């Protein structure tokens, strides 16, 4: 269980919920974190899949109603966090919108639930049921023994962009709210030929920032 503690200690980033200590109980091992106010972008315990995308009380619906500028800012902060994770030699396993907390009152973003982040190299030792949501998983996250890399993470990060400012699973430009330059950066993450994709999160982040200037 100490591996979870080490992940939070190694990835000490301002956006990440602050790890305090570990503790042992009769029911098992636990981690204690500093409390933050925020709503989870995949609050499945309160909202069904239909309600997530349609209820006015759903955090995801409220996020989609934010201005485009704010949503782009949230994505950019998430990408900054991902670059930091990459610099620490980690791969973001099981990172998805359920790892994202947002305080709508204070416009504050936090990241949580990074328990399965692993030091590279990482391989899919489970097969098609490898950790992650089908909404954001890359092809290699379904293939047994495939390597899970930072390029895999780029696929997920681009998927988040389509969730926040695009048509979610429908990745057409018609459903996209931002610029064509940003759209082209994100769609490049889904190229079937690995040589046409982004090999690193930092290269994706660089192109994303360049697109923001156009």
Order of helices and strands: HEEEHHHEEEEEEHHH
Oligomer: single chain
Report the portion of residues in β strands. Answer: 5-15%
**Helicity, as a percent range:** 25-40%
Q: How many distinct helices? A: 7
Q: Going across the biggest sheet, name each strand in turn.
A: 3-5-6
Number of strands: 9
Alpha-beta content class: alpha+beta
Low-confidence stretches: none
Overall pLDDT level: 95
Report on the biggest sheet. Answer: 3 strands, antiparallel
Rounded to the nearest angstrom, the distance between the terminal CA atoms is 46 Å
Q: Nearest-angstrom radius of gyration? A: 17 Å
User: In one word, what is the shape?
Assistant: globular
Pick out its properties.
214 residues; alpha+beta; three-stranded antiparallel β-sheet; 36% helix
Structure at a glance:
The chain is an alpha+beta fold. The protein is built from 7 helices and 9 strands.
What does this structure look like?
There is one protein chain. The chain is an alpha+beta fold. Helices cover 36% and strands 14% of the residues. The protein has 7 helices and 9 strands. It has helices spanning 2-10, 49-54, 59-64, 68-87, 150-165, 180-188, 201-212; strands at 19-25, 28-33, 39-40, 90-91, 100-103, 108-111, 118-119, 122-123, 147-148. The strands form 4 sheets. Strands 3-5-6 form a 3-stranded antiparallel beta sheet. A two-stranded antiparallel sheet has the order 1-2. A two-stranded antiparallel sheet has the order 4-7. Strand 1 (19-25) and strand 2 form a beta hairpin.
């Amino acid at each position: 269980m100490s591996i979870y503690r080490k992940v939070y200690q190694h990835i000490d980033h301002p956006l990440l919920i602050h790890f305090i200590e570990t503790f042992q109980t009769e029911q098992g091992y636990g981690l204690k974190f500093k409390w933050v106010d925020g709503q989870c972008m995949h609050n499945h315990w309160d909202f069904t899949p239909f309600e997530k995308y349609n209820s006015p009380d759903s955090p995801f619906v409220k996020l989609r109603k934010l201005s485009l500028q704010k949503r782009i800012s949230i994505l950019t902060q998430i990408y900054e966090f991902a670059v930091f994770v990459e610099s620490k030699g980690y791969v973001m396993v099981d990172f998805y919108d359920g790892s994202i907390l947002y305080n709508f009152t204070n416009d504050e973003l936090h990241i949580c639930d990074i328990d399965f982040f692993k030091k590279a190299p990482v391989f899919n030792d489970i097969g098609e049921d490898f950790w992650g949501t089908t909404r954001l998983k890359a092809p290699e996250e379904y293939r047994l023994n495939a390597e899970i890399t930072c390029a895999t993470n780029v696929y997920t990060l681009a998927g988040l962009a389509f969730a926040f400012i695009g048509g979610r699973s429908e990745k057409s430009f018609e459903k996209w709210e931002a610029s064509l330059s940003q759209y082209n950066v994100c769609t490049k993450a889904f190229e079937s030929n690995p040589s046409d994709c982004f090999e690193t999160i930092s290269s994706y982040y660089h192109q994303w920032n360049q697109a923001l200037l156009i």
